Amino acid sequence: MFKIVDKKTLSPSTKLVVVRAPHVAKRARPGQFVMIQIDESGERIPLTIADFDRRAGTVTMIFQEVGKTTMHLGTLRPGDELFAVAGPLGHPSEIALYGKVLCIGGGVGIAPIFPIARALKEAGNTVLSIIGARTKDLLFWEDRMASVSDELIICTDDGSYGRKAVVTQPLQEILMKEASNIARIWAIGPAVMMKFVCKATEPYGIPTIVSLNTIMVDGTGMCGSCRVDLKGETKFVCVDGPEFDGHLVNWENLLMRLCIYREEEQLALNRWLE
Ligand code: FES
Q1: d(Cα 89, Cα 98) in Å, to the nearest integer?
Q2: Is there a contact between 77 and 140 (Cβ–Cβ < 8 Å)?
Q3: Which of 212, 222, 240 to probe ligand 1 with, by most ligand atoms within 8 A of CB?
Q4: 270 in any annotated domain
Q5: For residue range 101-118, what is the model confidence (pLDDT) as tens digits?
Q6: How many domains does the chain contain in total?
Q7: What is the pLDDT, as a whole number, of residue 69?
Q8: What does the alpha-carbon distance between residue 217 and residue 221 come to, in Å, rounded to a whole number?
Q9: Of 121, 120, 113, 247, whose CA–CA distance to 187 is shortest?
Q10: Is residue 272 included in any domain, yes or no?
Q11: CA-CA distance, 46 to 61, in Å (whole number)?
Q12: Is the pLDDT of residue 78 over 90?
């Protein structure tokens, strides 16, 4: 069993949990994820590792309450235990000295972009970051992102904090000004956001890495539920990803697959709420 040692509410629907899982903390690297199971009969869900503390043996996960399992997870408190925390899974981010890099985090995607930006900074890169959310209440970790970024741009869709813009607007401006200086871009957030980031960067030929959060069942490459089409080649997000070259992703197929179980997910949520 894996004890929750801390829990914070970052916004009305975004929660942070710190879980004692020394086997994960010991090997975790930026870009990886865990599969968690709240109880023995519960659904397994993937959560990206937002941070880890090897000495304390803990991992931090940030999630948005969007369905039955994440809402259930949101009700747990410090001292409660999870039945399973499997990981770290997936390939870590390719951290190297690239020069000037751009890290873009949208909504709950700010959580996984943070350890990547930190590792890129530690590797000696100049890190420009853009974080955005629909509204001020949904933004978090501005301080953490500022601490690992040479420049941080903050936007909200409704203008309640930072610039009134979606993340692709400052991105376009940076590209027009200095595309040739940007060696690599990471973008993590809603699939639609990542799709438009990739559309913006493709004409400039800047490698753009996205982290995909698809439906997962086993997390071990056996069930095929997390498959993604990369220009005609099928890959499994759990074992081949979660990071991919965003210019290869078939976004229409991905967006369609993300909705496949919407009806069942709503039914499960309704039953749990009853
Ligand atoms: Fe089953 Fe990836 S979750 S193959």
Answers
A1: 25
A2: no
A3: 222
A4: no
A5: 999 999 989 989 999 999
A6: 2
A7: 87
A8: 9
A9: 113
A10: no
A11: 10
A12: yes
Tokens for 133, please give them.
Answer: 């959310």
Q: What is the CATH number of the domain that holds 231?
A: 3.40.50.80
Q: Which amino acid is at 65?
A: E
Our answer on whether the CB atom of 267 is closer than 6 Å to any ligand 1 atom is: no
Contact 239, 38 (CB under 8 A): no
85 is written with which tokens? 């925390």
pTM: predicted TM-score of the whole model, two decimal places: 0.90
69 and 115 both lie in a single domain: no
33-46 residue pLDDT tens:
999 999 988 888 88
Q: Decide if the complex's ipTM is over 0.90.
A: yes
Looking at residue 66, its pLDDT comes to 80
* Ligand 1 atom closest to the CA of 226, numbered from 1: 2
Phi-psi region of 49 (alpha: psi -120 to 50; beta: other; left: phi over 0): beta
pLDDT exceeds 80 at position 228: yes
